[in-house]
Design brief:
The complex is a heterodimer of chains A (80) and B (359).
Chain A (H helix, E strand, L loop, with lengths): L4 E9 L2 E6 L2 E6 L11 E5 L2 E5 L2 H25 L1
Antiparallel strand pairs in A: 1-2, 1-4, 2-3, 4-5
Chain B lengths: L1 H18 L3 E5 L2 H9 L10 E5 L4 H4 L2 H11 L4 E5 L13 H4 L5 E3 L3 H10 L4 E6 L6 H13 L5 E5 L4 H10 L7 E4 L1 H7 L5 H7 L3 E3 L4 H16 L5 E3 L11 H10 E8 L3 E10 L8 H4 L15 H5 L23 H4 L4 H8 L7
Parallel strand pairs in B: 1-2, 1-7, 3-4, 3-5, 5-6, 7-8, 8-9
Antiparallel strand pairs in B: 10-11
Classes of the chains: A alpha+beta (80), B alpha/beta (359).
Amino acid sequence: MCLAIPARIVELDGDRGVVDAMGNRFKAKTTLLPEARLGDLVLVHAGFAISLVDEEEAKETWQLLAEIAEFNQTTDKVSG
Amino acid sequence: MLERIYRAQRSIDAACKKLGRQINVMEVCGTHTVSIFRNGIRPTLPKGLKLLSGPGCPVCVTDQSYIDIVLQLADRDDCLIATYGDMIRVPGKEGSLETKSTRANVKVVLSSEGALQLAKDNPDKTVVFVGVGFETTAPATAVAVKEAAAGSVENFCVLSGHKLVVPAMRALLSEKNHNIDAFLCPGHVSVIIGYQAFKEIVEDFGRPCVVAGFEPLQIIQGLGEICQQLSNGKAELKSIYTAVVTEQGNTSAQKIIAECFDEADGYWRGLGKIEKSTLKLKDKYSQFDAFGRFDMTETPGEEINGCRCGEVLCGLIEPPECGLFEESCTPRTPVGPCMVSSEGTCSAWFKYGRKKRRE
């Protein structure tokens, strides 16, 4: 539950933004990270940006998330 | 990368040899628990190093009486329950939110904003947001409450079950029979509270506290750092998750938590009542407090018969020691919350835990 996802801010109006993580776009607010700007990479947790994050860190986490998704699919297949 | 793994393994082996006894390191984050299992870290560790999965899964630590209150509210025709998906399958005395959801008054939301929007869209219902989680989700709840107050969204309220990590760590270390040598501290909670928050654990209890991220290398390096400290007879505060964790944390988020909530004594599954360990809405936001609005109080929960989730959460037993594990309690037919949540210790053990250790 406490896993935050790195995503890039692709739209920003006040504190209301749209972010892109691995091609998935969703809404996120920057209320908790007022310094965030359009184009920044941020960690998003439960719909809120909580920290700035650098490109390398974001890539590593995306890779990890992709592995989790792949792994979960495998176990789903095995179990059912 | 391999060199960094070897270096950490050398530190771990050296500590096991030097201390000549079992070393117990507790992680207090469900995402760490899952990452440790899924990446096969446990089988690579020597026998002398044991990892304990502590109270780090928000769903798992939520007291049974809180769950029963949510289920009671879900039975009301005038309420909509807005919850994070994690809570939906947790069993109460009578069913779970999943079984109640056939009545269409249980809605899964991805954020507190979603819950607030639900209230705006359904003015004839009272929307109860099931506010669970640690310091990572608490600021999101706080933002929604402030917005509800500013926009006079009177049919929105929060059942705050938010919890604080450090008081739970203190409670564990204050137990006489605890066996915790050090903590692997949570990554994203630390983004909010800053690694300085664990200073009191290091200073008051002499236990190393190392903040690590979720990738396997981070976890292994974190364990290496802890073992090096233990070898040297030291207890220090350190963060190796420097990409996102700072000493002070996210001060905007801390400020908004402080504006909306007071620290209050509260109940945890397995740990009982812990002083100043939960977040209660401030008096000025009392109209948004679901406990007050529906005149509900949490009472120490009755545990589910035979379920030993409480002891699992304190690191006192491992899931296979529970009589229900793999028998009546499986991810498909969960009895206790540690099997329900995908971040629960029992669920992780069931899925990935049955591997042999390195000699």
